[in-house]
Amino acid sequence: MSLFFRTCCVALTVLSSPHAVADVRLDTRTQHYDIYPTSAADIRLQLRKHSPIIDQQQSFHGQTQWHLVPDFRWREYGNACRFHHINVTLTGAYVLPRLANTSETDADTRETFARYYQALRVHEEGHQALWLEAGQRIETLLQNMHGQQGCKALTEQATQQIHQIIDEYHQRNGEYDTTTGHGRTQGAAIR
């Protein structure tokens, strides 16, 4: 029960351009919410009390949101079409707890929280790795697509396949949470 994953958005941009560029760009930021435990045993209660992450009336300690934007442009060569500009951008935002009263807490509390936070971060970065893999698959797909059916049909085909990849990675992220117990098997648990 320590983590929650949500993908925010997927947008597709298709334009006509003559330059071939392929790059998966990654941009992440972290937003913290403060907790104020008085002991190591109090960390769990503080996480429940102060977490802003609620889904279906359940509180979670961490969250990752991803915005995956494949941008591709094409060029016609007679009856053939090929994508020339490919730019996949993956923007992520983590929401994680922060020990706000470090000067008022004992070493045991700080060390317990630090271990927990590191494990929680590792778990969240596992979600990032999956979405980065999805972005790379989309980039490779677009680099290898070309066809005789015209640019509109090729763009529709690419869009459909991109959505299939995204659906697959939504499922894989859910399986990742199930397999790891939302990070518990990776140490993201307060006992």
From TrEMBL:
Lineage: Bacteria, Pseudomonadati, Pseudomonadota, Gammaproteobacteria, Alteromonadales
This protein's UniProt keywords: Hydrolase, Protease, Signal
One GO molecular-function entry: peptidase activity
Name of the protein this chain belongs to: DUF922 domain-containing Zn-dependent protease
N-terminal signal peptide: 1-22
GO process terms (BP): proteolysis
Organism: Fluctibacter halophilus
Matching InterPro entries: DUF922
